[in-house]
Amino acid sequence: MMLMNLSTIQALDAADPLRHKRDDFVVPDHLTYLDGNSLGLLPKSTLERVSRMICRQWGGDAVMSWNIHGWIGLPQRLGAQIAPLIGAEAKEVIVADSASVNVFKLLAAACKAQGSRTTILSEPGNFPTDLYIAQGVAELLQDRHVRTVCAEEIVAAIDADTAVVLLTHVHYKSGRKLDMAAITAAAHAKGALVLWDLCHSAGAVPVNLNACGADLAIGCGYKFLNGGPGAPAFLFVAEALQESLRSPLSGWMGHAAPFAFDDDYVPARGIGRFLCGTPSIIAMAALEQGIASFEGTDLELLWQKARQLSQTFIELVDAKCSGLGLRLISPRDPYARGSHVSFAHDEDAYAVCQALIARGVIPDFRAPDAVRFGFTPLYTSFEDVWKATETLRDVLAQRAWEEPAYQVRAAVT
Ligand SMILES: Cc1ncc(COP(=O)(O)O)c(C=O)c1O
């Protein structure tokens, strides 16, 4: 391992072909922001775009904007813009609702389509909303149940009773990346469908849904896509499956002819059937700018930088923080993880996070014992990584986290 110092880190930034992208974002001067996987930063162009949309479109053309400014087509248009980031066709992706609601719609639709198969298979420790929604779907559809087995045993556990395998591609806590192609193929061999949660993948790691033969996927807009707090989410349904699935939320926006105002529900052809109600246009405008931040970016360079940032972080923590109570819980192999890295702290990971935040370094705490650091290749610099590890070492070495104020839990941890 090369011994890194501040000059080698600054040389990495100087050689970074994507370093100019940072200027596209509002990066608060006083923060070392390693939280891209909870809330991506604000693109500068979003301010102008959203205020233009509000003033000129809503303020100027009001309801006519649905047609004049194409508001009605935004879910499809944004879906088409996300498609290249996840290896899908434009007609297979649509923006709607939240990630949780999209899990519900696709999981329930897939379970129904799978007839008498009764098992929804997932892993323990999957992101809670996925497990909770699966439990809700099983309860609603009756005679279905959720089975969880650890990720290494998923393939062996898929059987003739498996309706849907529900997995998160990049694990929210450990960052571990699953082999989408292998798991999808194993599921198909047993007649099961797979629903992938791409919340920590889209915009962070290469995703090739169609190359992997994927059936279904969902993801959120506020993390690596930089769509803003509570941004609308997206969903993917492989073209070949679209006509055989019916959304359980049969709202009018997913109707074949919403403005015919018929009494009876007839699903739209294609991906549009997975819409439910009126989309949030202001939020969509913000998400469109978030997605636009990727425009003109060589994705291979982006993924390479993501791996390099997280690898540099691990190497610096190894060098500076050894013996200070941290344990890496993410895979060491950069190809086996997403663009975040977590360390367990056995005494008080929450207080460690608070002490870092008080010093301007922004990670996430993930209960019960993880400190998670996210690296957004569009704007995270190698110097950010350096600064964060310097502060982390000081907080741990001086046991600064023992300060009583850092133990007080806020509503959002
Ligand atoms: C893997 C995963 N799925 C889903 C969600 C959240 O879903 P929602 O946007 O509906 O709250 C998160 C949020 O962090 C997540 O990490």
How does this model look, in words?
- By secondary structure, this protein is α/β, with parallel strands linked by helices.
- Helix content is 36%, strand content 13%.
- The protein has 13 helices and 13 strands.
- Strands 2-8-7-6-5-3-4 form a 7-stranded mixed sheet, sandwiched between helices. The protein has a 4-stranded antiparallel sheet with strand order 9-10-13-12, with helices on one face.
- Helix 2 (44-61) packs antiparallel against helix 10 (281-292) and helix 4 (74-82) packs parallel to helix 10 (281-292).
- The longest helix has 23 residues, at 299-321.
- 47% of the residues are buried.
- The structure holds pyridoxal-5'-phosphate (PLP).
- Pyridoxal-5'-phosphate binds at residues 98-100, 127, 129-130, 168, 172, 197, 199-200, 220, 233.
Provide key terms for this protein:
single chain, alpha/beta, 4-stranded antiparallel β-sheet, 13 helices, 13 strands, 13% strand, binds pyridoxal-5'-phosphate
Overview in brief:
This protein is α/β, with parallel strands linked by helices and 413 residues long.
Biggest sheet statistics: 7 strands, mixed
Order of helices and strands: HEHHHEHEHEHEHEEEHHHEEHEEEH
Strand content: 5-15%
Class from helix and strand fractions: alpha/beta
Terminal residue distance:
35 Å
Radius of gyration: 22 Å
Provide the helix percentage.
25-40%
Number of strands: 13
Mean pLDDT: 96
Which hetero ligands occur in this complex? pyridoxal-5'-phosphate
Unreliable stretches covering 5 or more consecutive residues: none
SS summary, helix count: 13
What spatial form do the alpha-carbon principal axes imply?
A: globular
Strand order in space, largest sheet: 2-8-7-6-5-3-4
